[in-house]
Sequence to fold (94 residues):
Amino acid sequence: MAQTATATWPKAAPEEAERHAEGTVARTIEEQTAKLPSDIFLWSALGAVGASLYFELTGNIEKSHFIAFWVSPLLTLGVYNKLVKVMGSDRASR
Fold:
């Protein structure tokens, strides 16, 4: 019988967390991005999809494609933001 995965992330030992501690720049970026609500990136991506569709329908193909390229980075930033909130590099000090 196959084992099922647990719903929680495995907790890292404090020694491992200290060995992989982030620098001051990464810590500062995490502190600032953690202040933003995660859904702002989702709504921004949906807005980019809507704007891209608008430009596509109005015949501005180049603008449409340019704005369409924003969707993936916005969603990636949203995932990064969520991970920072859940598993930030400050786990050694928690």
Notes: The chain has a mean pLDDT of 80. Residues 37-94 form one domain. The two ends are 37 Å apart (CA to CA). Residues 10 and 87 are 11 Å apart (CA to CA).
